[in-house]
Specification:
Blueprint (H helix, E strand, L loop, with lengths): L8 E5 L4 H12 L3 E6 L2 H9 L5 E4 L5 H11 L2 E6 L14 H22 L3 E10 L12 H21 L3 E7 L2 E2 L8 H13 L7 E2 H13 L7 E4 L7
Parallel strand pairs: 1-2, 1-4, 2-3, 4-5, 5-6, 6-9, 7-8
Helix pairs in contact: 1-7, 3-4, 4-5
The structure holds NADP nicotinamide-adenine-dinucleotide phosphate.
The site of NADP nicotinamide-adenine-dinucleotide phosphate has 28 residues, from helix 1.
């Protein structure tokens, strides 16, 4: 795996923490020049300072002007990874218009506008890597917005792959993964969530950030894979 991404510039939007930071770190270990993109530039700079040779840039995936400005400033990238999400996990009867829109902006509209501004500066042998999620394939009350936005990401990957070819576009669909995003639940609730998720997988455990980073680096360098959604969820769709 070492140096797979040698001399390649990898922008990770959402790279200041959790799965984004894990992918950024692994990309750096694989020889990439890493750029951390985040809506909070200070957090991006702090994350970049942990990674040799990395830099930071301001990008809010819900604000087209910041996407356009970042593309103009960078001038050229080989790969873009987008981990951004916004949750609205409520029953249908409690849905709020603006929170639904925010969820679509983070996962679907933002990546579409990212493609608009970054395709012209992406290497023809480069790629865009989106993040979907297992909720798309496991309908559950209270998770309809998450399921639909993540499902849209899988279609977005295949649609963009066709139009932007030869630039490759793929998605990773994680199952419940111990990325740090669940820590605000508190130890007890997190343990309960993870126990339930482990029991609802074929491998009997939740995902790790390493599981996702491994898959991400492989997808960035898999030159014959495009338009695919790769499920890193221990077979949870089959339980
Ligand atoms: N972890 C899991 O169990 C799991 C399961 C299924 C799918 N996924 C998907 O995997 C992806 C990564 O998940 P994660 O575990 O790392 O946690 P996450 O909490 O979804 O992380 C989202 C990242 O995106 C950033 N972000 C949010 N809104 C943004 C915006 N408008 N512009 C730019 N960046 C923005 C966040 O940073 P700030 O909020 O600090 O700006 C954070 O770095 C997400 O798309 C998630 O839906 C995760």
């Amino acid at each position: 795996m070492k140096e797979q991404l040698s001399k390649q510039r990898v922008l990770v939007i959402g790279g200041s923490k959790y799965l984004g930071l894990a992918v950024a770190r692994r990309a750096g270990e694989a020889g990439a020049e890493v750029v951390i993109g985040a809506r909070n530039l200070e957090q991006a700079s702090q994350a970049a300072a942990q990674l040799p040779g990395a830099s930071a840039i301001h990008i809010d995936i819900t604000d087209e002007s910041t996407i356009a400005a970042a593309a103009a400033k960078l001038g050229h990238v080989d790969h873009v990874v987008i981990t951004a999400s916004a949750h609205h996990n409520v029953l249908v009867k409690d849905l709020e218009h603006d929170k639904i829109v925010a969820a679509f902006e983070a996962k679907v509209i933002g990546p579409l506008l990212l493609a608009k501004h970054f395709a012209p500066i992406l290497s023809p042998t480069g790629s865009i890597l989106l993040f979907s999620g297992v909720a798309a394939w496991k309908p559950a009350p209270g998770y309809t917005v998450m399921g639909v936005t993540n499902g849209a990401v899988a279609f977005l990957a295949s649609q963009l792959a066709k139009e932007l070819a030869p630039i490759r576009v793929n998605a990773i669909s994680p199952g419940i993964t111990d990325s740090g995003t669940w820590d605000p639940l508190g130890e007890q609730d997190k343990k309960g969530l993870f126990a339930g998720a482990a029991a609802s997988s074929l491998v009997g455990r939740v995902g790790t950030a390493d599981d996702i980073a491994d898959a991400a680096i492989w997808l960035l360098s898999a030159g014959n894979v495009s338009g695919e959604t790769i499920h890193i969820e221990g077979g949870a769709r089959h339980v």
